[in-house]
Protein 1
Amino acid sequence: MLTMFEMLLPLILIVLITLPLIPVFKGKKSISTAKRRMLTHVCCFFAILLVSVFFTATKAHAAMEGAETTVSLGAGLGYIAAALATGLSALGAGIAVAAAAPAAIGAFSENEKNFGKSMIFVAMGEGVAIYGLLISIIIVLMKL
């Protein structure tokens, strides 16, 4: 069971990381300062994330010392593969749609007949995410 400290600590750390970014979002800081602050805060966020995952994993490992484990290493790696398939395909689809959608809007604004053709390219970018989701579902179902 989590204690109150363990539940509030990540929330407090995230608030402490995001508070210095408020002047950047309000426009009171320059762009170079904003880039530097953003890079520092992203690095701090991932460092805190890694530390919290490490402490959670060691606590879970200590709790499972006396218990019998039923999940094998292969099943665990399969779940990680499913998560990576979904996450990376969604990231790729986001990049594809970010490039195709403005071009589709530009083509539609020039000629209304280009709407169907341009939406096909946007849908093809979204198809990448659906394929990744299907692959991850297949991986998870094979592990059951």
Note: The chain has a mean pLDDT of 80.
Protein 2
Amino acid sequence: MALVAIMDRLAIGEENALGDLYEHTSAKLFGVCFRILKDREEAEDVLQDVYLTVWRRADRFDAERASPITWLATIARNRSIDRLRQIGRRGGDRPMGEAEDIADEGADAFAALADSDDARRLTECLGTLDERTHKSILAAFYGGITYETLAERLSVPLGTIKSRIRRGLIKLKGCLSQ
């Protein structure tokens, strides 16, 4: 896969590789950031932070554990959620409801993962989870929905969502390691 080769080049410090990675992944990762932050400027700032993080941590990428797009989307998701929390602490000066909707025309993270050999195993393991946990994990990790938003949508306490997803991820890890 081309992204794995780019990640290998990044790991050895090849500067051109970062531009290649940006060219192949920026639209998708911006979509992840924007879906969570609902603010174009914040999403652009977070996206820049994502690529700085990738530049510094490229040597930690392990193609045996995840595909490059999954690894990158996870970093983008985590950075976006961190920024969302940071905005919330400082009171947020922009109303979230007024952000313009931008459709991400690319495949979602689950569809990108489906192109890999890991997709079959992940699908099988997700199938072993109860329906609520299965849907919660898909919404949070492949839909880019924050735990807080998911709790509101499902009308359950935030702690319940966190526990449900944590237990589900532990089961997935056990299933995938077999």
Note: Residues 132 and 164 are 8 Å apart (CA to CA).
